[in-house]
Structures are given as structure tokens and as C-alpha cells.
Amino acid sequence: MATVRKVFETNTFGMMVGIQAVLPTFRARPSGLRKDVNTSPLSSSR
What is the spatial distance between Cα 34 and Cα 8, in angstroms, rounded to a whole number? Predict the structure, then answer.
């Protein structure tokens, strides 16, 4: 269970930190491109 918790916290809080880091830049630009990166095999767009 400790491993599951660690993976969950890494994925959840890591994403939150990443979003908080780039959000000011996104808001400052009136337009642009965004690239989604997903490593989950269950959400493949193929």
C-alpha cells in the first residue's frame, strides 16, 4: 500500500507542481500551442 500511495502522490502532486509552474506563462500569452504528454497505456489516442 505504501508503494501505491507514493506513486499516487508523485503523479498527483507532481502534475500540480508542473501546472503551477507553467500557468503564469500560459496566462501571460494571448495565444499559442499546448502539447499534452500522457504516459498511461490506457489513454492511447490510437
Answer: 25
